[in-house]
Write a structure and sequence with these properties.
The chain has 11 helices and 12 strands. By secondary structure, it is α/β, with parallel strands linked by helices. The strands form 2 sheets. The protein has a 10-stranded mixed sheet, with helices on one face. Strands 5-6 form a two-stranded antiparallel ribbon. The chain folds into 2 domains: 64 residues, DNA polymerase, domain 1; 276 residues, TIM Barrel, CATH 3.20.20.70. The chain binds iron/sulfur cluster. Iron/sulfur cluster binds next to loops.
């Protein structure tokens, strides 16, 4: 070192990825320091990105004009781009988003653009945003249209957080005080663990997106090592298990992942999962007409979930180009009643946005007539 100050304008400030979205508070502070700025500038960037949802570096007026210029030379905010909005009659919006690969890094597997889906569901007092964690999915659940895409690639933490920012910003004028986030879009979150946890670090941070862990749910097809890992995290969302069958024979047929992680082992992982005082597990059960919707199935599900602090969400299957049929209304009600009689909390959840292919299991980049 010769004591001379480095030429800060020539420092490449983001050498793993040019995108600011997805960076943690610590990473942004380091970035500021590498630019020769004080660390608090990083905290200002963090607030600008995640609290104020500023989408362009040039508009981060909390930073000096000179810093903004230097930052623009090497970085970009990096939000996913809205390609299409499909608006449902019930107010749900299915976004088709492009995540650009430029600025990504082959080390993260980000070598090509990905097209993904995010669903925004407005309600009276809140909105729920369903986000994707991978482009496509490799898990191959037989009742889910996303499976037909195969796995395209993992999403980066920025692409995961960016979906929420885009959906909130696009609905800024009508936002309700509470936002719920569900990791139930394309992909299996626990097969993209690092990026998902990095994103959740920002999403659940009171100084970041500020979503309460009580209002965020990660849904898994039952990746046991991922569940065990999640159990050890200090900051984590609620956990939902996509069960969908009452025995292994049945589950093997519709969820090939069950051959690797069968029901007994999955239930053991659930029993070992450390629930917080306010928390319960959720079992999701897609009802496929004539396949897994009998009263006997309900009795077996009640037994499986019986000794756990859990509730069961029954989701009548949403039609798509797959060889299943939605369950009859009487069978849905008989299933729910059987669970309740066995002491199990159970609710029927009708998916929203079916008319624009935004409902559970329908995310497969399908075009629909209702566009905006
Ligand atoms: S249900 Fe989830 S895990 Fe299964 S194929 Fe669809 S996106 Fe993947």
């Amino acid at each position: 070192m010769n004591g001379m100050k480095p030429e800060v304008s020539h420092i490449r400030v983001a050498d793993d990825c040019d995108c600011l979205v997805g960076k943690s508070l610590e990473e942004l502070k380091e970035l500021a320091i590498r630019m020769g700025e004080p660390a608090y500038r990083g905290a200002q960037m963090y607030a600008a990105l995640y609290v104020e949802r500023v989408a362009q570096i040039g508009r981060m007026t909390v930073l000096s004009a000179a810093m903004r210029r230097r930052l623009e030379e090497s970085s970009r905010v990096g939000l996913p781009e809205i390609m299409r909005r499909h608006r449902s009659a019930d107010g749900t919006v299915r976004y088709v988003l492009r995540c650009a690969a430029d600025g990504g890094t082959p080390a993260l597997g980000v070598t090509r653009d990905a097209v993904i889906e995010t669903v925004f569901m407005p309600e009276e007092k809140r909105q729920t945003i369903c986000i994707s964690t991978q482009a496509g999915c490799a898990v191959n659940c037989q009742f889910c249209l996303t499976a037909t895409l195969g796995l395209v690639r993992n999403l980066t933490s920025g692409e995961i957080v960016g979906q929420i920012l885009v959906a909130l910003e696009d609905n800024r004028a009508s936002l309700k005080p509470q936002t719920n986030v569900v990791l139930m879009g394309q992909g299996e979150p626990l097969l993209n663990y690092e990026a998902v946890m990095a994103a959740l670090g920002i999403i659940l941070d009171a100084k970041g997106l500020g979503i309460s862990p009580k209002h965020a749910t990660l849904s898994t097809s039952g990746i046991i090592p991922g569940i065990d890992r999640l159990a050890k995290e200090k900051v984590r969302p609620k956990l939902a298990i996509s069960l969908n069958a009452s025995n292994d024979e049945q589950r093997d047929k519709i969820m090939p992942i069950n051959r690797k992680y069968p029901i007994a082992k999955l239930m053991e992982a659930c029993r070992n999962y450390p629930l917080r005082t306010w928390e319960h597990l959720t079992f999701e059960y897609v009802l496929l007409g004539g396949f897994n919707d009998s009263v006997e199935d309900a009795r077996r599900v009640a037994k499986l979930a019986g000794n756990l602090c859990a509730k069961v969400n029954l989701i009548p299957w949403n039609p798509g180009e797959l060889p299943y049929r939605p369950p009859d209304a009487e069978r849905i009600e008989a299933f729910r009643k059987t669970l309740v009689e066995k002491g199990q909390r159970a609710f029927v959840r009708y998916s929203r946005g079916q008319d624009v292919m935004a409902a559970c299991g329908q995310l497969a980049l399908v075009e629909s007539a209702a566009r905006a």
